[in-house]
Design brief:
Structural class: alpha/beta
Strand order of the largest sheet: 2-9-8-7-6-5-4-3
CATH topology of one domain: TIM Barrel
CATH superfamily of one domain: Aldolase class I
Strand content: 15-25%
Number of strands: 24
CATH class of one domain: Alpha Beta
CATH architecture of one domain: Alpha-Beta Barrel
Shape: globular
Radius of gyration: 24 Å
Number of helices: 19
Length: about 600
């Protein structure tokens, strides 16, 4: 009897990177493994979107569109390259208006993407209608997606088989065009029997010709079992990864899945020896990258606090950077209450990040003392309708702290009216910064905001974590230096206030970092950082008169914007940090004079 051929998408070079390395990987480092995987017979890869749009810009100082071009060139014209989109959020944490949603599809098609997997973390189908139409209108294949998870232990109200069937029927009733459908469990917590029943019911509704895929992670230790259940329920395709980015927080391993299917009616259609050879090449490509110990571990705590692999390692890495990794167990434990009171949106980006940010705030500042902006906007309806009604007291707190009223208006309609969003707003950002206005730059500015502008200005920073080899950190001769950073060599030449790094010129005038002083009457009071982070924006200038509570600057911490406010009324005597600086808790940022 002929076996059923199961179609495999290799997620190593997108979700694998996000789940294990927080998506912070230089494109040139992994291209040899990608080419080898293509030669081994893999015809379908996830390579773009999700965190692999912002992370190249934020942490690798690489243009995400240029990395996509390199990937397409490496695999040739016939390989199915897939991207991940978050409905109205496309590839960011914030939602977008219609013009940016359409520009997203247009540019991803232009830069080599074949298929876009499109999901909404709240399973609000209204957020998939326009985004799905744009994907099809721009000549891409649309994989419409239903997001899954298990509710925290003891919770009920959503995320069961009838809930997923309702979402599916809403998609069909809305007339959303799609080429395939996926069920995405980013936290890897869905019970295998529920997966089986959900896929089986979907097959009954859609018929024998629909292409159904299932995606999960091994974070909770049940990913492989869930994949077997999905296949028995009627799935046609599954997502797998290769070492060193498989298992634990990432997808099940291709080799492990191949082994688990021995003696069954299913066949992955792969040459296992070629895959094993490719895994060795891949391991060599990634040998210098820091591998977080939690990345490949199974963590049963996640069953009650559904934290996706991509969010788990991305956040633990940021906690390490900020010196608060000791708080991680408390934050994970605090997730349960945050998920339950938030209305049971699926724990997948951006909602997983909202959950983590709120849990982080509850641990660092006290329960519900500080509402994370994304979480607050979610419970107030600014990202769509949550599966269940959020806790009324939390909604009230969010309304008071954010100064926003609850809404039931469509997200795209809200964003179309927002003067700070869209192509026009992004164009103005570029013009104000003296940057070229083109489609790619407009999208980078709109999706990445201030950090996107800094990148385009040549002020991008490197935040890739590599284990540096035991060689001298630098060598020097006169005013020319060779400096090693994260294992890579940079040729630096100093000439007065200018530095040339690998042929690119930078202004290194020390005056930008010198404390700026203003005359003042009365003793000054330090304005200190309440949390570790990076200086995102400085809102005040030396000599400005400010009132108590005025915003002096904005820090970025754990992908959140944290306002730093004046502790009293007075004059800004000094500002002792610059945009982009990394700061620690208690560090003086500015001084306010009486």
């Amino acid at each position: 009897m002929a076996k059923k051929l199961i179609k495999v998408m290799d997620t190593s070079f997108r979700d694998g990177f996000q789940s294990v390395y927080g998506a912070r990987v230089f494109v040139d480092d992994f291209l040899p493994a990608l080419k080898s995987a293509t030669e081994a017979g893999i015809k379908h890869f996830e390579v773009a979107g999700g965190a692999r749009f912002q992370s190249p810009i934020f942490y690798c100082n690489e243009n995400a569109f240029e990395t996509m071009d390199k990937i397409r060139a490496a695999v040739g014209p016939d390989i199915n390259l897939q991207s991940l989109a978050r409905g109205v959020n496309v590839v960011g944490l914030d939602s977008q208006p219609r013009d940016m949603i359409n520009l997203h599809a247009k540019l991803f098609k232009k830069h080599g993407v074949t298929t876009i997997r499109n999901f909404d973390a709240l399973n609000d189908v209204h957020n998939l209608i326009y985004s799905g139409q744009c994907i099809k209108d721009n000549g891409l294949k649309h994989e419409v997606t239903i997001t899954m998870m298990e509710l925290p232990i003891g919770c009920t109200g959503a995320h069961d088989v009838p809930f997923y069937e309702r979402v599916l029927r809403n998609i069909l009733d809305a007339g959303i065009p799609f080429d395939s459908i996926a069920f995405k469990d980013a936290s890897g917590t869905s019970a295998p029997r529920k997966v089986y029943e959900t896929i089986k019911r979907t097959r009954e509704i859609l018929g024998p010709d629909a292409h159904i895929r299932f995606h999960s992670h091994e974070t909770a230790g049940t990913g492989l079992a869930a994949y077997l259940a999905a296949l028995d329920g009627g799935a046609d395709g599954i997502d797998l990864a290769m070492k060193p980015v498989s298992g634990g927080t990432a997808q099940p391993d291709i080799v492990s899945m191949w082994h688990a299917l021995k003696g069954t009616e299913y066949d992955l259609g792969i040459d296992i020896n070629k895959i094993l050879e490719t895994e060795e090449i891949f391991k060599e490509c990634m040998k210098d990258y820091f591998l977080p110990p939690e990345a490949l571990a199974v963590n049963p705590m996640i069953i009650s606090s559904p934290l996706p692999g991509g969010a788990l390692t991305a956040n633990t890495q940021m906690m390490r950077d900020n010196g608060v990794m000791d708080k991680f167990p408390e934050v994970v434990a605090a997730m349960k209450e945050v998920v339950e009171k938030g209305g049971f949106g699926t724990s997948v980006t951006p909602v997983s990040q909202f959950y983590f940010q709120q849990a982080f705030n509850n641990v660092m500042f006290g329960a519900w003392k500080k509402i994370a902006e994304g979480y607050g906007k979610m419970v107030l309806g600014y990202f769509g309708k949550t599966p269940c009604e959020p806790d009324s007291e939390v909604v009230k707190i969010a309304e008071e702290q954010l100064g926003l009223a609850p809404t039931s208006e469509l997200v795209v309609d809200l964003n179309d009216k927002d003067p700070n969003k869209g192509i026009k707003a992004a164009t103005k950002m570029l013009e104000d910064a003296g940057l070229e206005v083109n489609d790619e730059n407009i999208f980078i500015a709109g999706a990445c905001k201030e950090k996107g502008i800094m990148f385009l200005q040549g002020k991008g920073q490197i935040g890739v974590r590599k284990n540096c080899p035991a060689v001298p950190a630098c060598s020097a001769e006169g005013n020319e230096f060779t400096v090693k950073v994260n294992g890579k060599a940079y040729a630096v030449k100093l000439d007065g206030d200018k530095a040339t790094v690998n042929g690119k010129s930078y202004d290194v005038s020390v005056k930008a970092g010198i404390e700026k002083q203003a005359a003042s009457s009365g003793a000054g009071e330090d304005v200190k950082a309440g949390v570790p982070g990076n200086v995102l924006r400085i809102e005040a200038s030396v000599g400005d008169s400010v009132s108590e509570g005025d915003v002096i600057m904005v820090l970025e911490a754990m992908k959140m914007e944290i306002e730093v406010k004046a502790p009293k009324s007075g004059v800004v005597q000094s500002i002792v940090v610059s945009q982009g600086d990394k700061v620690v808790t208690g560090q003086t940022l500015a001084v306010i004079g009486g």
